Amino acid sequence: MEPVAGRAYGIADKVEAFVRETIIPFERDPRATSHGPSDELVMEMRARAREAGVLTPHILADGSHLTQRETAIVLQRSGLSPLGPLACNTMAPDEGNMFLLGKVATDEQKARFLGPLVSGEARSAFFMTEPAEENGAGSDPSMMMTTCVRDGNDWVINGRKKFITGADGAKVGIVMARSEDGACMFLTDLPDPAIRTVRVIDTIDNSMPGGHAVVDIVDLRVPASQMLGQSGEGFTYAQVRLSPARLSHCMRWHGVATRAQEIATDYANRRMAFGKALIDHEGVGFMLAENLIDLKQAELMIDWCASVLDTGSAGTIESSMAKASVSDALFRVADRCVQVMGGTGVTGDTIVEQAFREIRAFRIYDGPTEVHKWSLSKKIKRDWKAANA
pTM, whole model, 2 decimals? Predict the structure, then answer.
């Protein structure tokens, strides 16, 4: 692989300095609630990022996007604090939604919906997942229950969505629904009285503003001009978004895991037990050594997958490999950090316990590890059949 351009390291260094010096002190801010940081806190941090020149750093002033390999370097640094991606505007779902709109939206749609996201003035939500108890779309999007019907110059959408990250407080929505042609995507302004938050769910993670909501969509009317792409092509567009989005999650949580390792390492070198520092006990030192190995292997997997995406490949198989392996590796890192720190590791005195919770959730969203392994096993079978035809 060719070396990554130097511009990425310059941007990443600025992002890291900003996160460490300006954003980490916000980690104890009471506006970081159990359902995610408040919009007041998000906008305050983004104002700081704008002043520092690190807001939406992966999208350049001319509108061009860093390569995936360059983006990986920048997003890993923004993830050194759970609040860093929010402050720098590199957080899900906005980062993935910006990528999708940049690829699929019309110029008019970009001006209206993408512009406020890139500037950090608005948040967005991606309405795809549906309640499992109603047998709706989850890891299998073909089970989509939400419908859209053409009515003159409008589409009328009805359905229920669940685990919709950031819906509460978002200004831009991307809604997936099923027409006679197949899956469709629509852009809509939020809030809208036809999109009703039933409840915000209590979940293990709390890094994303607005939390994760159950939402009813009742007779939502969307002009045909706000359909994203073509009717029936929604699953294709979903893959445009999801393959790099899975990798972006890997990038951000790699940063959080790196920070947890820093904290655990500091603790192990300062804490004394049985006449010596914890780091000098093999049981502890070996856990930190294993963390270094997992972090480096995860970094290499991210870089490899990013390089594949940069060739123009859809990268579906590669992103499944990265998502499954990196999420599990980073969870091992976070788990060992908690273990190294003992009682302190399960308190809110540091971000280590939050890293553990957030990365545990990461193993499920954007496809559980088992779904990605199932996808990979199907490829193995296809390849075997092709080789033995």
Answer: 0.94
